[in-house]
Structure formats: C-alpha cells, structure tokens
Amino acid sequence: MVGELSTRSPEFRQLWAAHNVRWHASGVEHLRHPIVGEMELTYESMGMQADSDLALSIFTAEPGSASEDALRILAS
Which residues of the chain fall below pLDDT 50? Predict the structure, then answer.
C-alpha cells in the first residue's frame, strides 16, 4: 500500500520519507466518511496499562455542529 501511494502522490512520498511520527494524546481530526462526508472531531487518547501496545481513543463532535449530525446518522 505504501508503495502504491508513494508512486501516485508526491506529497505522500515526502511525508512518508520524513518519518515525522509522534504520539498525540488529544487534538482535532478531520475525517471523510463515505456515507456522511466531512467531519471535524475532537479526540483524546489514553494508553492502556494492561498492554502498552493498546490505546483507547474517544472522539466527540461540537454540539449543534454538522459533525454531530453526521455522528447521529452513523449511530442510527
């Protein structure tokens, strides 16, 4: 998959080569879902004490936003 993306996208190739990877415990994600479209979600992640390879991430939407509406549609 990385090879295919690298051949098709100069931007991906540059980002992948930079290896700029770090852990973020909170922030905002912009997602595109195939059914409801664009969403802007705030997240918080917590590492699991039982297994350091696992994390729990919680995503929420701003009350009254189009993203909240999108999450309600997905939950129905």
Answer: none
User: Backbone phi, then psi, for 28, in 5-degree steps?
Assistant: -125, 135
Per-residue pLDDT at 2: 81
| Sign of the CA dihedral running 15, 16, 20, 24 | positive
- Strands annotated E in 10-74: 26-33, 37-48, 51-60
Mention every residue, 6+ apart, whose C-beta is less than 8 A from residue 7: none
How far apart, in whole angstroms, are the C-alpha atoms of residue 74 and residue 22?
29
Is the CB of residue 33 less than 8 Å from the CB of residue 70?
yes
pTM above 0.90, yes or no: no
